[in-house]
Structures are given as structure tokens and as C-alpha cells.
Amino acid sequence: VNLLSASPLDVGTDLTIGDDGTGTLSALASSTITIGDDLGVGDEGDGTFTMTGGTLDVGDEIRVSTDNDGTGDMALDNVVVYCKDFKVASDSADGDGSGVGVVVLLNNPGVVLDGGNDDLLIGAYGTGSLTSTGGYIDVNEDVEIGQFGTGTVTLNSTDITKSDGSVDVDKVYVGAGENASGNGELIMNGTSKLRAGNNVCIGGDKGDNSESNQGYPASTGILRMNDHAELYAGDQMRIACEPLGTGKLYMNDPNTLVQTINNEDLYIGSWGTAVVEMTGGTIDVDDDMKVGHQDGGNASITMTGGFIRVDDGLTFASSGDATNVVNLTMSSGALILS
Q1: What pLDDT sits at residue 69?
Q2: Where residue 296 falls among pLDDT bands split at 50, 70, 90?
Q3: Which of 11, 60, 147, 189 pairs with 252 at a CA distance of 20 to 30 A?
Q4: CA–CA dist 256, 280 (Å, integer)
Q5: Residue 84 has what DSSP assignment?
Q6: Which residues 6+ apart lie within 8 Å of 21 measured at CB?
Q7: Nearest-CA neighbor of 74 among 7, 28, 24, 124?
Q8: DSSP state of 162
Q9: 175 phi-psi bin (left φ>0, alpha ψ -120 to 50, beta other)
Q10: Distance (Å, rounded) from C-alpha 34 to C-alpha 23?
Q11: Which sign, positive or negative, has the C-alpha torsion 157, 158, 159, 164?
């Protein structure tokens, strides 16, 4: 289906592209597409959705690839998007992890999730990726990347927050498998900002309890901070808290910032395996920083630049278990206890 410039499309219920075959929808400049219920791109078939300019207004969910061999590709250039939930390879139909979804948002003027669970889910079951350049993604609830599958999110000067800036997203999970292993990666470039009002969990942890040892399956989460990117955790920030979890944080530029606020802690490798590498930037902890402090905890921090500032206490390998491994290597930079 090809929509010409400024052409409207109004669908009262669901629209599925690539239901059990191959389907393509291409909309040219300044089109308006209104869908009363769900938009599915790639269910049991292959679906492609491209749009340049205009507005995409979806009454319920956007689903790019469903987890039953569906392949979905969505490319939006300068398109305003409204929906309740945005799922990329994150809707389970048969649970085999076969779905593949790719979303590219160019010149993103804004994606607004409102009226449903309001979650952004990337690679919850299959393999999903989302790349956004500019603008914002307005998420009322959680951001989950690689819950049971493999998910990658790349932000190029894109903020994940509320569009009015007044309310943070809730929790952020990167590589957090609760019932099955997941792999997630969040790459923040340019001036991207992410503000979480609750926990930020990187690698094998859903942050349900204060210091949970819930035995989640092995999962890996990676956070890469580049350029002028900033991430704020309004509750605990947890890197590899679970026994089988692996969490990695890379601070790659002097103007990057990771900060806990509201008198909250940073946990690095509580029971799992954590790697923190800093060539620049600042990690600012508003309360305690605990490193490899539970039985079997494994944490490595390497600083060739940058600053770590801890407002309250700093704890290394405090459980007394001989299996704890903690390494701190500093060739440059500073660790500041204030």
C-alpha cells in the first residue's frame, strides 16, 4: 500500500502488515494515519512500515514483530507518534524467541505513550532494536530492554522522559530476565537524557526488593554513556545484583553523567558480575556505593579518567565471603567521598 503526500488513512480497528505473508505500507510526506486499535508490523509474516512526515495515531499498541517467526521493520522520519504501548519483538505468541523487530526514528519530533500500560519494551521475547535521533520518547511507566530476548536501544540526542519534563519514567531494566535469560544494551549518545523515578537495573535484576537474591536466570545488561549523555536514577541503581547477572557500564566521554538522586544507593556486583570502565565523565552517588558486597559478588572498576563522587558510605566486599572479588584500578581520575 502506498499513500501519496498528505493522504489520510483511517482504520477503525486493527491494522496488521505482514500477518501471514509479506506486507508493506509506505506513506509519503504529511500523511495522517489513524488506527482505532493495534498496529502490528510483522506477525507470522514479514511486515514493513515506512512513513515520512505527518502523524501516526494508534489507539492501543504498536507491535513491531510478534514472537512467532514474525519480522517487522518500521522507519519513521519526522513523524509524531501516539500510542499506549510500544513493543519491538516484545509480544509473545509462541514463546520461542523467533521474532525480529527493527525500529528507526529519524528527526524524531516526539513519541507519546499514554492511556495503557505506557511501557516501552524492546526485545522482551525476540530480537528487537530501536534507534532514535532527536526529540523525545514520552514513557509513563517502564523501559525494558532485553527481558527474555535480546534488545538494543540507541539514543542519539533523544530524551526518554515525560514530554513536559515534570514526571520521570518509572523503572528502567536493561538485560533483566525474571523467568528466562535476557540480553539488553542501552547506548546513549549526544545530549540524550533519561530520568527514572524508580530503580535503574543493568544486568539480571528487576529491582523488586531492596537487595534481592531471587536467583533469576543469567542475563546481561550493558549501558554505554557517550558525548553529553545523562542518566538519573530516582531510586537505587543496580549493576549485576543477581547471582547469575552480568552488568557493564562504560563512561566514554568527560561530559557524561550517571547520578542517583533522592538519597539513593548505587550497587555494583552485589551477587553478580559487574564491570565499570571510565575514560571520563562523572558517577555521582547521592547516598552509599556498595561494590561486590554480597556472597560471591564480583566487581571490577577501571578508571583512566573521570570522577566518582559518593555522598555517604563506600563499601567493598563486606560480606566476609572468600568468593568475593573486587578490583579497583585507577591510572587517572578521582574517587571522592564527601
Answers
A1: 73
A2: confident
A3: 147
A4: 7
A5: S
A6: 45, 46
A7: 24
A8: -
A9: left
A10: 18
A11: positive
Instruction: State whether residue 22 is helix, strand or coil.
Output: strand
Determine the Cα–Cα distance for residues 181 and 146; give it in Å rounded to an integer. 9
Distance CA 203, CA 185 (A): 9
What is the arithmetic mean of pLDDT over 16-27? 91
Q: What is the mean pLDDT of residues 118-136?
A: 93
User: Is 0.85 topped by the overall pTM?
Assistant: yes
223: nearest Cα among 265, 263, 194, 180: 194
At residue 216, does pLDDT exceed 70? no
**Residues 222/251, Cβ–Cβ less than 8 Å:** no
Given a cut of 80, whether residue 10 has pLDDT beyond it is: yes
Strand partners, 246: 220, 273
Query: Which cell goes with 14?
Result: 486493527
Look at residues 305, 207, 296 and name the one whose alpha carbon lies nearest to residue 260: 207
140-197 per-position pLDDT tens digit: 888 999 988 899 999 999 999 865 555 678 889 999 766 567 899 999 999 999 999 8
One DSSP character per residue, 271-315 reads SSEEEEEESS-EEEESS-EEES-STT-EEEEEEEEEEEEESS-EE
Q: Which three cell numbers stand for residue 96?
A: 520461542
Give the C-alpha separation, 98 to 5, whole Å: 35
Grid coordinates in use for 193? 537524557
Torsion of Cα atoms, 87 then 92 then 93 then 96, to 10°? 130
